Amino acid sequence: GNSVTQMEGPVTLSEEAFLTINCTYTATGYPSLFWYVQYPGEGLQLLLKATKADDKGSNKGFEATYRKETTSFHLEKGSVQVSDSAVYFCARNTDKLIFGTGTRLQVFP
Amino acid sequence: DSGVTQTPKHLITATGQRVTLRCSPRSGDLSVYWYQQSLDQGLQFLIQYYNGEERAKGNILERFSAQQFPDLHSELNLSSLELGDSALYFCASSQPGSNQPQHFGDGTRLSIL
User: What are the backbone dihedrals phi and psi of residue B84, each rounded to the nearest 5 degrees, phi first?
Assistant: First the structure.
């Protein structure tokens, strides 16, 4: 089937730690892949995207590389800040956008 | 600011009632999507409209319906409300194409008492 699997949260880190949030997908064809972020009390915001294999999306210090061979799109950031605390959603899009369950990130000073 | 506007921001009503949620998409976006976000179900796709016509259906209950008007704004109608319908309802809009991201509004928080 077509789905997106994310690592369960919460992920709890100290400020300036390295972040990885795993995401794998199943899909027929070649989906576009997205990471969205939802800050408390707000809607989802597009964080980054990649539309073909080996593409790297990046924004605000976050990066994710479209890995066709492992069907993955892991989100990384080298040094997290308290302001990065939010819920992160991985999503894939072929005929419709399918979201993962979301991973809550909590960053403490 | 995503450019997608949803009203109202909050809605409190009782079981059995009917409500209408409104969405104005980003300028130029022809597709509108509705999602329900609840604690136990996560983010669920409800329905998509493209240029006034229904394009795709997800986990939308028969008590719920939507439409997109000629000016491209959309409304989601929820009727015979139940306690379990309490959730955040998001609207998103996008340009055509699977590589185009969806842009989300800030949502309507619906509370059923």
Answer: -70, -5
B97: CB partners within 8 A, 6+ apart: none
What does the radius of gyration of chain A's CA atoms come to, in whole angstroms? 13
Residue A94 CB-half CA count within 13 A: 11
Residue B47 makes CB contacts below 8 A (sequence gap 6+) with B33, B34, B54, B56, B57, B58, B60, B66, B76
Task: Kindly determine whether residue B90 and residue A43, on different chains, have CB atoms separated by under 8 Å.
Answer: yes
For chain A, the straight-line distance linking the first and the last C-alpha, in angstroms and rounded, comes to 41
- What angle is formed at CA B99 by the lines to CA A83 and CA B56, rounded to 5 degrees? 100
Does residue B42 sit at the A interface (CB-CB below 8 Å)?
A: yes
Q: Which residue of A has its CA nearest to B96?
A: A95
pLDDT in tens, B23-77: 999 999 999 999 999 877 788 899 999 999 999 999 899 999 999 999 999 999 9
Sign of the alpha-carbon torsion through B94, A97, A23, A81:
positive
Interface check B101 vs A, CB under 8 A = yes
